[in-house]
Amino acid sequence: MKIVNRKISELIPAEYNPRQLSTEQFEDIRASINRFGIVDPIIVNTHPDRLNIIIGGHQRCKVAESMGIDEVPTVELSLDLNKEKELNVRLNKNTGAFDMDALANYFDEKELIDWGFTQGELVGFTDDDISVGEQPEGIELAETFGVPPFTILDTRQGYWQERKKHWKNLILDKGETRETAMNELNELQYGTWKGNLKAAPEVSILDPVLSEIVCKWFTPGPSKVFDCFAGDSVFGYVSASLGHTFTGIELRAEQANINNERVASMTAEYINDDGRSVLQHIAEDTQDLLFSCPPYYDLEVYSDMENDASNQETYEDFMTILDTAFTDAIQCLKDDRFAVIVVGDIRDKEGYYYRFVDHIKDIFDRAGMRLYNEMILVEMIGTLAMRAARTMRNRKVGKCHQNVLVFYKGDVKKIKKNYKDLTTEIQDES
Question: Is the distance from CB of 147 to CB of 404 less than 8 angstroms?
Fold first, then answer.
């Protein structure tokens, strides 16, 4: 490998370089150069499109220039932009902190993972922090109830992540039918950020561990459970695995078909119809649990169908669909039974919250089901940490939770009689 001395003034820092240098690290490099000189050459690109761009050694150049050094030893490589960026990240990965906003603006998360990052490192902690090791206070409760039965449901904990991995390996649902619609929505509403990192959310899949604990906590034994906005196959798969009989109403034929393929040998069925037609498929007073994670208005547009709740022109039209569907679905529930609805607030075009969570509460209250529990599902940070600096320019804090609303229909005094004590460890379907 040939080393060539080049003037610092000829070299151009990469516009995307994400490496951060603390004052202490700056002084360490300065002391090293002062004592030994520059023993680690600067890597420079000679590709015609990227001529003289620094690939590795930005900080050494910066420190050397501050010391009055004119020339530095360099190694020259000819790389296109993508390979240049990859090498830059790989060189920097284990040598210091990163500017997360620079990563968000110039790099695709999938590229970073391909180049050696873990999901944990992208949000500031390692995989060990979310998988094994010492468990927090309440692990005994997790062994009894699946997760500690608190108002905070923490999906970042090791017991949650291990259980989630187990279910995902069984279900293999990646939201395939929604990827195209989401990609089109991202282009239309959000455009493309530098480096092709989409600022919009990715396709969301229901958390299977949440599905599991809902079935365990809020059913009176082997039960009939249903969802009028079924979406993916997760809840049907999990509930059937736990001994329940599931019926889902799903508007999109493609999604209903793929769901039925996944649960073909199980006590679960997905009916291709509008959620507002729930009473045409499920008789009144026959079901033991209503569970649903309905669309979040246009946060994810699932199809261009006229009757798709996520495809309505106004929030009011969207809520009218949910109101009709849930009001009718409540009639399908037996007395003395629960409904569990997973929702999160969404912003309007001006950035204000619609108060979606409150409006769902109002629907159930009008239909005679009062709010009995409210839990906060704390989610993995994911790329939120990478986007936080950008969203805070408008003073929008990053949202990393959903609300799990539990409603009850009937006489609360009968709960203890109808629902058994949860004293056995959650069953392992492996």
Answer: no
DSSP-derived 3-state class of residue 366? helix
E strand map for 119-186: 152-154
Q: What is the pLDDT of residues 161-198, one digit of tens each?
A: 889 999 999 998 666 555 444 444 443 333 333 333 33
Domain range summary for the chain, segments of one domain joined by +: 3-98, 127-418
- Determine whether 172 is exposed, middle or buried from the number of CB atoms within 10 Å of its CB (0-12, 13-18, 19+): exposed
CB atoms within 10 A of CB 396: 13
| DSSP assignment of 306-333 | TT-GGG-SSHHHHHHHHHHHHHHHHHHE
Which uninterrupted H or E stretch holds 337?
strand 333-343
Which of helix, strand or coil describes residue 94? coil
Q: Does domain 3-98 have CATH number 3.90.1530.10?
A: yes
Nearest alpha-carbon partner for 14 in 66, 96, 83: 83
pLDDT for 64-122, tens place per residue? 999 999 999 999 999 999 899 888 887 876 555 555 555 656 666 666 666 665 655 55
Q: What is the pLDDT of residues 49-61, one digit of tens each?
A: 999 999 999 889 9
pTM surpassing 0.90? no
Tokens of 231: 């979406």
Is the pLDDT at 25 greater than 60, yes or no? yes
Handedness of CA 223, 152, 148, 158 (dihedral sign): positive
Q: Tokens representing 350?
A: 């001006």
How far, CA to CA in Å, does 372 sit from each of 220, 241, 419? 16, 27, 15
pLDDT class for 201, splitting at 50, 70, 90?
very low
Residue 339 has what pLDDT?
Answer: 98
The residue among 26 and 339 whose pLDDT is bigger is 339
- 10-24 mean pLDDT: 79
Q: Quote the CA–CA distance of 242 and 354 in Å, as a whole number.
A: 36
Secondary element (H or E) of residue 83: helix 81-92
Instruction: Match 């002391």 to its residue by tokens.
Output: 31
The H or E element spanning position 386 is helix 384-391
For domain 127-418, the CATH superfamily is Vaccinia Virus protein VP39 (3.40.50.150)
Cβ neighbours of residue 107 closer than 8 Å, sequence gap 6 or more: 16, 18, 85, 89, 195, 197
Q: Say if strands 333-343 and 401-409 run parallel, antiparallel, or are unpaired.
A: antiparallel
Query: Is 130 within 8 Å of 120 (Cβ atoms)?
Result: yes
